[in-house]
User: Fold this.
Amino acid sequence: MSHFATTWAIRQKGLKPATKLVLWYLADRHNPDYGCFPSQESLARDAEMSRASVNRHLAALEEMGLIRRVRRTDPATGRVMATRYLLAFEDEFEPPPDAAPCLELTHGPCLKNVDSRVSDCDTNLVSEPVRMMMTKQAREFRASLLGALGADPETGKVRGEGHILGSAADMAEADRWLGDLGLSEAECLGVIRDVLRRAPRTPHSFRYFRDAMRAFAARKQETPLTPKAGWAPKPVPTIRAEPPEAYRGKEAGNG
Assistant:
């Protein structure tokens, strides 16, 4: 169990309750050292839903750029191994391709295949588009980030190029800059502008700035506090201890 991963999952906005539940159980199975490898049976049992429902919610999470499923096979035997689930905050995570592959070719039977062994039932019959819901402050921050990157503040499309920025995964990364690194929005924008002065072209993901943000946060913590102008330490008073009355009388007699 990873407390960071589950906290990250809880912070994600704009998900249907069942989809967010699947994301939380994925995060709960995440190990910081080894990764995330739960079976669909385990996820279905944890979330108390069918495997078909789990597959649909996993597809929605992957479409939003919050997870990436990686097929694994044993190089010696060719046997299919447990799928690895990459979460958006992991260093190995890469944005998903434009067209998501069919589950039949990657992670088990395709739900559209009549020969699928996965039950085609679902506990949530409500069908609605997945939207990335954000607060007004988050929307304004996203627009500022996209503007600094030369992208359209609404669509995220980079002018003169084909890729799009500002996805849910990008905003999860930006949330880490604010929450985990303790940077302000102005500091994040300053780091981005500084990196872009040296970058040959606009990056395809906010994760491009992760190392620069970490380095800036480390320097910020190391910066000593500067005393205010006109400030000076108060003088420490000298304390003179008086000898006891009896001792003073004894000294007088010896004199």
In short: The longest helix spans residues 51-63. The chain has two domains: 3-106, 136-222. The first strand starts at residue 67 and ends at 73.
